[in-house]
Amino acid sequence: MYLTPQHILLAGATGLTGEHLLDRLLNEPTVARVLAPTRRALAEHPHLENPVGELLDVLPQLSGQVDTAFCCLGTTIKQAGSKEAFRAVDHDLVLAFAQRARDLGARHLLVVSALGADANSSVFYNQVKGQTEQALKQQGWPQLTIARPSLLIGPRAEFRLGERVLMPLSRLVPGKYHGIETTVLARALWRLALEEDDGTRIIESDQLRRLGR
């Protein structure tokens, strides 16, 4: 477990999971600095550095020590506008962020993927998530933690009909298919970040729920 002050790089700080994770990080006594690039400015905090702009434009400008990186980037095909635009975020942008974090010295990457991620899936969404996981493994991370949450439960700024319909059902199904609160996921991610376990770990949603209680 880390006892020295941590320098954190976080992508997706304005998203459903990222905002809860950011709040937790800024209130952790072992976190000295959170570097969180976003498209819109965040509330000021003495331990927060918040470069504002499109992530691809901001990435080359990031500097300073980074110990651990969290990637909470993600969209939907509908929100992105096309399959190509979806892949540009959930695959290309995730990999670009991860590589920049590695360049800055991060040893541990924690990335939010998705339940059912499989590079060989016939479902495009799951296929892209699986291909992203595969590519991350090839970046040579000393420690890589891949979180695969099921349906995320929490208030969103935008309306998603499919999620509104599935959310009540997701609370009833057992095991890893049970929906997970974003606050629970954020707690689980931080606990996983504190563990020193070299290599790649894939953490399924039921494990995430137990860790985040």
Automatic annotation (TrEMBL):
It holds the Pfam family NAD_binding_10. It comes from the Bacteria. Residues 12-152 form the NAD(P)-binding domain. InterPro entries: NAD(P)-bd_dom, NAD(P)-bd_dom_sf. Gene3D superfamilies: NAD(P)-binding Rossmann-like Domain. CDD domains: CC3_like_SDR_a (cd05250). PANTHER family: OXIDOREDUCTASE HTATIP2. This is Uncharacterized conserved protein YbjT, contains NAD(P)-binding and DUF2867 domains. It comes from Pseudomonas segetis. The lineage of its organism: Bacteria, Pseudomonadati, Pseudomonadota, Gammaproteobacteria, Pseudomonadales.
